Amino acid sequence: MTHKRTLVTCALPYANGPVHIGHLAGAYIPGDIYVRYLRMRGEDVVFICGSDEHGVPITIKARSRGVTPQDIVDQYHQVMKNAFTGLGINFDIYSRTTSRVHDRNASEFFRKLYDDDKFITKETEQYYDEEAKTFLADRYIVGTCPKCGNPHAYGDQCEKCGSTLSPEELIDPKSALSGSAPKKVKTKHWYLPLDQYEPWLRDWILEQHKEWKTNVYGQCKSWLDGGLQPRAVSRDLDWGVPVPVDGAEGKVLYVWFDAPIGYISNTQELLPQSWEKWWKDPETRLVHFIGKDNIVFHCIVFPSMLKAYGDYILPENVPANEFLNLEGDKISTSRNWAVRVHEYEEQFPGQEDVLRYVLTANAPETKDNDFTWKDFQQRNNSELVAVFGNFVNRAVVLTHKYFGGVVPENRKPEPIDAETLAAVIPCREALERFIETFHFREALKEAMNIARIGNKYISDMEPWKVAKTDPDRTASILYTCLQICADLAIAFEPFTPFSAERLRGILRVGIDAGTDHRAGEGEPTVNFYRPDEGKALHTVPSGSSVPGAEGTLVLDWSMLGASELLPSGHVLGESVLLFQKIEDAVVDAQIARLQAIKEKREAEEAARAAEEAAKKIEPQKPEVTFDQFGAMDIRTATVLAAERVPKTDKLLKLTIDTGLDTRTIVSGIAEYYRPEDMVGKQICILANLAPRVIRGIESRGMILMAKQGDGKMRFLTPQEAVVNGAQVN
User: Fold this and answer.
1) Among 33, 544, 561, 646, which residue's beta carbon has the most beta carbons within 10 A?
2) Strand partners, 6
3) Domains within the chain, CATH numbers bracketed
4) What is the pLDDT averaged over residues 405-414?
5) 611: Cβ–Cβ under 8 A, 6 or more apart, which residues?
6) Are the CB atoms for 596 and 648 separated by under 8 Å?
7) Sign of CA dihedral 162, 164, 170, 171
8) Bridge pairing between strands 692-694 and 682-686
9) DSSP-based three-state secondary structure for 438
10) What does pTM read for this prediction?
């Protein structure tokens, strides 16, 4: 089917913390690349996103900080919005699920499905905290993980081993609110019967969308093959969109049901008069960009909701990425193992494109991938700086040197020139093919291949040498190089928009970046770059002339690979470096920061493990009779002298005053106590233990000690000083 327009959404990030690089690589940079490309192709696109601001984790964070959930979402909504803008991710709207528009829209959506009998009602038993007088979401229940023994697992997941859990599986579950053991209490909720949509989903996904990415298709098939079950659309909570039916006091829409409706709400907020054509017109194509953990919701649950409603379009594609790790370890904000976007922007000002480039080059498109600071440095220095930036700088600097900054005439062309320019065409074709099939890593390689073509050409032609004897040939070489520079200004616009803009400033060209709808209702606008005014973006109605831009060169995607983008006589701007080399000290500092975090975390985990182990009690030994116990003569004694037994690591030779005599006892406590710490210590001993020769030393008796779960031995000592030889009864 031919489409008139494309609606692109990015997963609504959860507003309980800042955006990190895993989020960027998973959904937001791929979505922005795709939208920029479509707009440069002249397609009509709306780009939708916003903050997901309901749900239990937000209430947990608010409670821990002593503030309201609204305080939390207000803070992080702005942090996330600024982070996206700082990376050049330009949504037409970035709104939020706490908006009035969304509250009204989500309520209406639920109510229609309710009135149409699309839900089923079930009464189930759920955990309830009698002290806090509230039902407990899974995250509010903590206990010991049955799989790894982590004593701090949540009712839905163990963050130590990554296992998905249910509260029933936890060992010794407790309420995170009061610390008391929760009780099971009956409660009523509404459920979307996904099992009723399973036959339709199997056909729609498994038969009609075999072109979906293998990781997406595979996860959907796994869920469908496992059999779908009804899923609750409401929950007992006081933070969220209230369930709009009688008898639902204290219940809100479950965040998984509420959040995807946010795409519709945000579109309504942006385009209140024309939103329906973006969600209900079959000639609109809907594409969701999401991360791995959202595949089921966007491919199975949300489409079932839309199908139940009746007149919404369904997603044509859901190009989800897998997870991005950091330095070989899973990104986790709770463990402080992350690179947060707003912190990157503060620490690397002017290098936004480097992060965009590296995250695209390492995108976890079909399997998990890893971000390392050394790779970040290497890709910047040997690709962006040494290939792309180096080529552009040489071409422009030499043009200024030999031709006064004016594009020279193609006075003396040779076949190699035309062959070089022609080599851009296959790159363009592959680049387009890869973007349109959501293989952005491969698309970026093709864009960089254009820079490699230019870099090799200028190195092989050596115009700085040719200029000494053949100025006409030099003119043709630089003319060819500058055409490739213009190609790069087009090809890299979707991937590295800031450096592409700097390059257009050097070349003194504008760019038709396509239509957007950030102006809201009314005619679509064209982003038109005016190089004579620095970085200014001028917007004008689509199809109209640009006032004052007569004679300004304007590039668009259709021109990529054309033989003449910059005509002879065109005046260039001054050369500036597109990229800066990143020194070892910069990345070493980032690596050291992460290493310090890792060491601190490992120390804390070891301390917690030791603390938990120390609490463990050895099981009771078999029973003995009173007579057996009475046969033991336990007495108090004082250590007079202590020394290590030669050639051993564990044995100490102790000289003991028992009050009856002075004797020697050999004890395996050297790993816990130093000899000098023993002298003068009052202890308890088993005095009538038969003598035993240990390492040639006669040992008469045994020191009584307590052994904890961590294996460490501790003395049993009288609380008050007593005479040596006193019997312990």
Assistant:
1) 33
2) 45, 285
3) 5-115+257-330 (3.40.50.620), 123-187 (2.170.220.10), 372-510+547-559 (1.10.730.10), 626-715 (2.40.50.140)
4) 96
5) none
6) no
7) negative
8) unpaired
9) coil
10) 0.84
